[in-house]
C-alpha cells in the first residue's frame, strides 16, 4: 500500500453497514473533515428537480462552462448526501471547468432499487431539458460518480441507451460498484481491506436490492450488451473489492466497440482519494477533472 495512505488507516472506522443510520453519521463525520476547494470561481446553487418525488440537487457552475456532468455520490447506496459530496463535486467542477449537478438521490434500505436510479435519470432528463438555462450545450452532458454512484451512473447510461433518452457524451466512473454477484478474485479475497471489504459490499447490495431480483439497471455488469454506450473513464483501486469487476467492465466495453480510458491506481484502496495529503490522491482527483474536461471539449 502507498505509505502516505497507510499512515491514515488507524483513523478510518471499521467497514460496517449493518446499521445504516450509524453508518451515515460516521460517513458525515469523515466527509466533514475534508476541506472543500475555493468556490469563488463558480456559482453554487441548491435546486429541486420536479419528479415523483422531487429530487434535490446542488449545481456547481464554473464561469464560462460549456458542458455538464450529472454526478452521483458514493456511500454504498446507503450513505451520503449533497453535503457529504460537496468537497468532491466542487473539486470536480474546479478541475474540469464543467457544470456539476450533484444528485441527492434516495438512499437504501428505506428506498431500495430502483429509487436511486429513477432519481438520477430524472435529473439527467431535467438537465437535458434545461441546458440553455444552465448555460451548457445539450450535446455535452456526461454522467458520473464515485463507488455506488458510479454504478448508478453506468445504469443511467444503459437506461438512456435502451429508452432512447437524452444523449450522454461520457461516463466518468470512479471505483464503481457494478456487480452484486461478487464472483471476481478481488471481491472474493479482499475481506479485510480498508473502508470497503467483501462483507460491506454484501451489505450494500443487500440494502440496495432489497427483495428485488438483480437486473442490469441495478448491477450494470449483468448487462449482456454494452454496445452503443458512451465512451468511459473507469478508475479502480488496487486494494478494492470492486477492482476486478471494474477492469472486466472496461474490457467488455472495449469489446463492444466503446472507447475506454482505464486507470488502475497502484497502492490505493476504495475511497482513499479522500486523503488529500497523499500525492497519489492528488493525481487521482486531478485526473478525474482532466478526463471530464477532455471529454466535453472539442
UniProtKB/TrEMBL annotation:
<protein>
    <submittedName>
        <fullName>Esterase</fullName>
    </submittedName>
</protein>
<dbReference type="Pfam" id="PF07859">
    <property type="entry name" value="Abhydrolase_3"/>
</dbReference>
<dbReference type="GO" id="GO:0016787">
    <property type="term" value="F:hydrolase activity"/>
</dbReference>
<feature type="domain" description="Alpha/beta hydrolase fold-3">
    <location>
        <begin position="69"/>
        <end position="272"/>
    </location>
</feature>
<dbReference type="InterPro" id="IPR050300">
    <property type="entry name" value="GDXG_lipolytic_enzyme"/>
</dbReference>
<keyword id="KW-0378">Hydrolase</keyword>
<dbReference type="InterPro" id="IPR013094">
    <property type="entry name" value="AB_hydrolase_3"/>
</dbReference>
<dbReference type="InterPro" id="IPR029058">
    <property type="entry name" value="AB_hydrolase_fold"/>
</dbReference>
